[in-house]
Amino acid sequence: MRLDGRKPDQLRPLTLIPGFISSADGSVLIQCGQTRVICTAMVEEKVPPFLEGKDQGWVTAEYAMLPGSTRTRKARGGSKPDGRGVEIQRLIGRSLRAAVDLQKLGPRTITLDCDVIEADGGTRTASISGAYVALALCCDKLLRQGLVQENPVIHQVAAVSVGKVEDIAVLDLNYPEDARAQVDMNVVMNERGDFIELQGTGEHDTFNEADLQAFLRLAKLGIKEIMAAQTAACTETNAQEG
Amino acid sequence: MRLDGRKPDQLRPLTLIPGFISSADGSVLIQCGQTRVICTAMVEEKVPPFLEGKDQGWVTAEYAMLPGSTRTRKARGGSKPDGRGVEIQRLIGRSLRAAVDLQKLGPRTITLDCDVIEADGGTRTASISGAYVALALCCDKLLRQGLVQENPVIHQVAAVSVGKVEDIAVLDLNYPEDARAQVDMNVVMNERGDFIELQGTGEHDTFNEADLQAFLRLAKLGIKEIMAAQTAACTETNAQEG
Amino acid sequence: MRLDGRKPDQLRPLTLIPGFISSADGSVLIQCGQTRVICTAMVEEKVPPFLEGKDQGWVTAEYAMLPGSTRTRKARGGSKPDGRGVEIQRLIGRSLRAAVDLQKLGPRTITLDCDVIEADGGTRTASISGAYVALALCCDKLLRQGLVQENPVIHQVAAVSVGKVEDIAVLDLNYPEDARAQVDMNVVMNERGDFIELQGTGEHDTFNEADLQAFLRLAKLGIKEIMAAQTAACTETNAQEG
Amino acid sequence: MRLDGRKPDQLRPLTLIPGFISSADGSVLIQCGQTRVICTAMVEEKVPPFLEGKDQGWVTAEYAMLPGSTRTRKARGGSKPDGRGVEIQRLIGRSLRAAVDLQKLGPRTITLDCDVIEADGGTRTASISGAYVALALCCDKLLRQGLVQENPVIHQVAAVSVGKVEDIAVLDLNYPEDARAQVDMNVVMNERGDFIELQGTGEHDTFNEADLQAFLRLAKLGIKEIMAAQTAACTETNAQEG
Amino acid sequence: MRLDGRKPDQLRPLTLIPGFISSADGSVLIQCGQTRVICTAMVEEKVPPFLEGKDQGWVTAEYAMLPGSTRTRKARGGSKPDGRGVEIQRLIGRSLRAAVDLQKLGPRTITLDCDVIEADGGTRTASISGAYVALALCCDKLLRQGLVQENPVIHQVAAVSVGKVEDIAVLDLNYPEDARAQVDMNVVMNERGDFIELQGTGEHDTFNEADLQAFLRLAKLGIKEIMAAQTAACTETNAQEG
Amino acid sequence: MRLDGRKPDQLRPLTLIPGFISSADGSVLIQCGQTRVICTAMVEEKVPPFLEGKDQGWVTAEYAMLPGSTRTRKARGGSKPDGRGVEIQRLIGRSLRAAVDLQKLGPRTITLDCDVIEADGGTRTASISGAYVALALCCDKLLRQGLVQENPVIHQVAAVSVGKVEDIAVLDLNYPEDARAQVDMNVVMNERGDFIELQGTGEHDTFNEADLQAFLRLAKLGIKEIMAAQTAACTETNAQEG
């Protein structure tokens, strides 16, 4: 029995509100319990310098927390780079590039902005799962506009955290669990159940192969459920647009 | 007849969702037509260096736009300071300090963060009107917690933009109007109808005293209506908390 | 009777030394009582990116205070942006663009640098009034050099501060008055008496429409006198150059 | 058969030169094939603000590449933060904190600086393995100086990269292999074979559980060998010092 | 015969206007031909961290050029540090510390700000010679105020440039000479004719010992003349103050 | 008799290890007693903006100290520019440009990176003497590759420090001597014995012409010896490459 009454293999209540930001090319508000992230996808008709003339596109991500998203005000980034945020936005970018055929995208950049408006643990995995929806809706729009011929989205991507708390493997840690976790692992998968990223950290303790098996089993369960919610959100939106 | 069908003295539809961010000490989502701003108030039990030992508190503000809030992605601030944002956050801070008795607040700082999630003109005045609600809810909480003896909020503050578009004085400009406005004026008032700030700019044209009278008449009308909505939002929240 | 013996509607002694910096394309040392600002205008044969290919020029401004300009040394700007300075230089830029026909200027940029060498209140309005002289002398030079066909300066621009001190409306506040002012308003006008910018701030108090009328009456008087001094400075210089 | 003639489970030639920097409190030059990193440990008798008064120490890391360490000159960091470097130095810091009992260290900070002087793949894992030696030598010195009563180093830590290249799982990738790797995984372990960090990335491809098993088997082999070299380097130095 | 008609051993016309900035603790406008620098000395009652508790003061310098001081507008410093300016302000600081007994100064800092308002070569040596006057006037004021018991200024310091232009050794180069100089040397001396700093640079050519002798002879002549002007400026001011 | 037993005119033991960094176009590890600097030369096929279209190349330098190079950890540069480092890297760049015919180099840039791995005084002169070797080896490689027709290196350049310690003129100061030196002078010469740079500083004392003669005599002796070591290092390398 967990702090908030969940079973070890139970996700927090999950809600996806697609189209939350009407100015963006794709957007969603993802809510995993008290963790809430606005994810937007914005298209720019240019590529970074290292891709110029290579006839492919790029997908990148930025991650930030609003100052009021934590109980103690979080100062905005800016001149002082925040190492944790840099690490997270690189993870989001790599994960979502695994969803896309960059040739099919053509010479344009999609930037996925993940702005945490309330933080209660698991903001990086919520960002990845939400960014997928924003990206998919954005690519649907590119298709409708005739800017791409084929859908550049070739895989579905979702993420969840798992960890060991009081010697028990649990799924989708909230902040009180995360703060006391012995081990914390973020798992990013595609719709085939293959791994895109696996990041396990044992700062308070270490973990062995049996722990790892338990973590991966929970992660698969959770990601399957998240993917169902992603699919529903995208389908609903396309029904309205189509 | 205006671009969006409004009359010259008509506000855009206005919605205030108090308590939008549960981690913050006070918060609201303010929506003025397509312009949407998350305003949060956060308390820190310290004051800036220039007030140390002076037995009073401080109120300050920060303003930012999310990258997806405009049709063309807006790069995040950071190393390059954005002059417009600096100007706006100084205006918000000055305006809201006029609402508060800093002695009654005691030696603590309230930071008002205004994060624009969708921008369609009038983001600075929406930020001020929303920040007032976040500030008032935050001070109500300080009172309930017994951290202050008397409510530090001594005036109600709201703001609206007025301007001249196609030679007609209009209230609450949206972005298409703002872009073609000959004159743009932001008016901040308190509940007695006195001016806190008056900022008129005639970059495309100039204005005379007759224009000024017309602007101020419209601003008073608009601010009265906004104050009614602010009061409703605060009352509703306090009914729930109380 | 004011602190320095002036009447409420009396300007401080005003001196303009045109051509103070011989390396600049236009320059003046403006002295308003103890407030002294070096204003220079420099031409660059390029425009900012957002104007490329648009067949017009640009006028922009920068404002800074020398470290020795205040009784307590003022640290130089640099990595830490100074919000007040940003706000002021944006005001100067907007005000002076109202003096110029940017098409007539052609695809070049004039930068107006206002460096305060001694500060005793009213540095932003002194900067605007001085920057006009630097700009006008610079455009006279462009005409003499045949780089422009018609004079791009189409309006005269000057500024002055007004405010309420000890419940009396006064003109051209010095620093001791400014520090205790209930209300402070900066007014920028052209030669027709129309407003370009109007910025009133009531941080210590608020103001009503009667106050506003009193402020505007004083501002008109002051600006008329400043414009006479500007005209004399420009005429004298052109007599020497011509 | 690999590009450089190694077998899939074969490390590159490994050399550790302890005491390479005599001004540092602990140091080593680690060479893994053509990858060479100078690792130093420096003691400061203070802790970061968040640990003040908590009666424990801190271990942190910084990572940088010398401009001449790559075939194309790598610009120094500085005003533009380098996301990859931030990510790496956070990984090094977390990994080495798992080696230390921060209470036994007492209220001081050990900074582990890893400066890559030649880069040929695997610089982050070489940095971790080298940083362990610098840290251990530094703590031996603290013991000899009587600044700590018990050795704060409670675990041995080493790291290696594994990956999939041309569909084969291989150990300790050099740069040409890394550039074409389908999957890249960094594994950090302690002397008991438990995991401290596990970071697998499949940017060009994904990986499944069978791949994961193969990676972990190779990593164990490699880390065992690296730990033997670490032990030899520390023993040799202590024999000289003792 | 030089470009501007001077003899090889002739200084440019030199003017010193002491007390140019009345808000500063000491100040001068130094004019060497077309080169003009505002030098101010400001006292702060604190010392840098490395001198805390050491019962001595500190003298430091900052150097900047106004944007209009050169024919092509010079961008302000700030985020991009300007190497040349850093080098110059370190030279000014070291030179003026040689004028002062830091124990007699007591635990306070004098900052010497040298702001070039017009640049025509030799700005760093003009800054040193001017900064000495600002420093001396500032210390006279400290004495009059009773903040120091003895005058901390124990040496007179002045500087001049010398160089080789068209194979001739010349004194006090203006910008056209400096731009074509084969060798450029800055010499800082005290009133006894001893060297404080000697910086010779042969970027376009090299120099030998005979050249060096010729340079030093010219420098002595020039510095003697500058010191006479410094003394006159200080005496005149003290006569007025006394 | 000096602190470390050397005679006044004796260099510290000098070792040059050419080719120390195999990824660089030219490199050396220079060791002068306990002072050790890695110098690399890297070629980029472009020139800085101010040389575009001028048909010549550029040589520039960067200087940094590793955090572990001093007994007290030296924080890395970055956002806060380090004035001393800026001053040093400008000196290195100017000195080495005197070694090269920039026309013969063609439109490319050689960057000389000097990274101090251990600091015991004289790091700037060791950097210059080492940078010459890296530069010479780099130009030899350009010749072998046929990228230049003639060797751009037209002069040999080396540097040494001299100073006055306990009233005695000494050569090649180590850190304990440097810290107590009355006068410190850095001398850069070419193979003809002509001066390229001469920088004498008397922060703790001043110096006269007799001192200067003594310094220059010692510097010549030292530089002759350093040049012999440079020549040996280059010859040895070319024998291997050739």
UniProtKB/TrEMBL annotation, chains A, B, C, D, E, F:
<keyword id="KW-0819">tRNA processing</keyword>
<dbReference type="InterPro" id="IPR027408">
    <property type="entry name" value="PNPase/RNase_PH_dom_sf"/>
</dbReference>
<comment type="function">
    <text>Phosphorolytic 3'-5' exoribonuclease that plays an important role in tRNA 3'-end maturation. Removes nucleotide residues following the 3'-CCA terminus of tRNAs; can also add nucleotides to the ends of RNA molecules by using nucleoside diphosphates as substrates, but this may not be physiologically important. Probably plays a role in initiation of 16S rRNA degradation (leading to ribosome degradation) during starvation.</text>
</comment>
<keyword id="KW-0548">Nucleotidyltransferase</keyword>
<dbReference type="InterPro" id="IPR001247">
    <property type="entry name" value="ExoRNase_PH_dom1"/>
</dbReference>
<feature type="domain" description="Exoribonuclease phosphorolytic">
    <location>
        <begin position="155"/>
        <end position="220"/>
    </location>
</feature>
<dbReference type="GO" id="GO:0009022">
    <property type="term" value="F:tRNA nucleotidyltransferase activity"/>
</dbReference>
<dbReference type="Pfam" id="PF01138">
    <property type="entry name" value="RNase_PH"/>
</dbReference>
<dbReference type="GO" id="GO:0008033">
    <property type="term" value="P:tRNA processing"/>
</dbReference>
<dbReference type="InterPro" id="IPR036345">
    <property type="entry name" value="ExoRNase_PH_dom2_sf"/>
</dbReference>
<dbReference type="InterPro" id="IPR050080">
    <property type="entry name" value="RNase_PH"/>
</dbReference>
<feature type="binding site">
    <location>
        <position position="84"/>
    </location>
    <ligand>
        <name>phosphate</name>
    </ligand>
</feature>
<dbReference type="InterPro" id="IPR002381">
    <property type="entry name" value="RNase_PH_bac-type"/>
</dbReference>
<dbReference type="GO" id="GO:0031125">
    <property type="term" value="P:rRNA 3'-end processing"/>
</dbReference>
<dbReference type="GO" id="GO:0016075">
    <property type="term" value="P:rRNA catabolic process"/>
</dbReference>
<comment type="similarity">
    <text>Belongs to the RNase PH family.</text>
</comment>
<keyword id="KW-0820">tRNA-binding</keyword>
<dbReference type="Pfam" id="PF03725">
    <property type="entry name" value="RNase_PH_C"/>
</dbReference>
<protein>
    <recommendedName>
        <fullName>Ribonuclease PH</fullName>
        <ecNumber>2.7.7.56</ecNumber>
    </recommendedName>
</protein>
<dbReference type="InterPro" id="IPR020568">
    <property type="entry name" value="Ribosomal_Su5_D2-typ_SF"/>
</dbReference>
<keyword id="KW-0694">RNA-binding</keyword>
<dbReference type="GO" id="GO:0000175">
    <property type="term" value="F:3'-5'-RNA exonuclease activity"/>
</dbReference>
<dbReference type="InterPro" id="IPR015847">
    <property type="entry name" value="ExoRNase_PH_dom2"/>
</dbReference>
<dbReference type="GO" id="GO:0000049">
    <property type="term" value="F:tRNA binding"/>
</dbReference>
<keyword id="KW-0698">rRNA processing</keyword>
<feature type="domain" description="Exoribonuclease phosphorolytic">
    <location>
        <begin position="10"/>
        <end position="137"/>
    </location>
</feature>
<comment type="subunit">
    <text>Homohexameric ring arranged as a trimer of dimers.</text>
</comment>
<feature type="binding site">
    <location>
        <begin position="122"/>
        <end position="124"/>
    </location>
    <ligand>
        <name>phosphate</name>
    </ligand>
</feature>
<keyword id="KW-0808">Transferase</keyword>
